[in-house]
Description:
The structure is a single chain. By secondary structure, the protein is mostly helical. It has helices spanning 3-6, 24-43, 46-60, 66-84, 89-111.
Amino acid sequence: MLEKERLLDEQGRHRGQLPGEMSNTEKFDLEIMGVTKERGEVYGHPIDMFNRAARGQEIIRKCDDIEVRHALEMIWVKICRLIETPDHFDSAKDIAGYAKCICMIVDKRKQDGNM
């Protein structure tokens, strides 16, 4: 029996719930089953993705600037995703967005006289 089927009764309702009533936890459980399946099909198994990401983040941790470091970590995650799925446009677009965020951080600091 599938995990999703175990959560539902014969009428398709969650066990122990009145018709139309569903807790946020149950909604989360149903949604996450689809999300992990979809992400796995696009990016591969989490162990491979997380291993790549962790290796790159070891180097990125050498950046002393906490805000820029976070943007670099996010860029690296997107690069890792592109390694698995190079035609995933959103990941490429996200890299550009995080790079722009670094420019915005630098500009804000200059504007505030913190550089």
